[in-house]
Design goal:
Elements lengths: L1 H12 L12 H5 L8 E3 L11 H12 L3 E3 L1
Parallel strand pairs: 1-2
């Protein structure tokens, strides 16, 4: 999985006007100020780890406010 993340990071970081910010968990991402982002690219492969209700609510609020998600 790390090769895929690295390739995606390198590709997206090379685009003009694109800033890349990486976190190691969805919980860490949900705790960020998501209003500072236009799009979230989720590369999530820990299916055994359930997403907490508060984290899910943060992502739902982000999308309902017009944010995009690529998963």
């Amino acid at each position: 999985p790390w090769r895929g993340r690295r390739a995606l990071r390198d590709l997206l970081s090379s685009e003009p006007g694109f800033a890349f910010d990486e976190v190691s968990s969805l919980t860490e991402a949900a705790q960020r100020d998501l209003t500072q982002y236009a799009v979230l690219v989720l590369y999530y492969h820990h299916r055994d780890t359930p997403l907490a209700d508060a984290d899910l609510a943060a992502f739902r609020d982000f999308v309902e406010a017009g944010g995009g998600v690529l998963a």
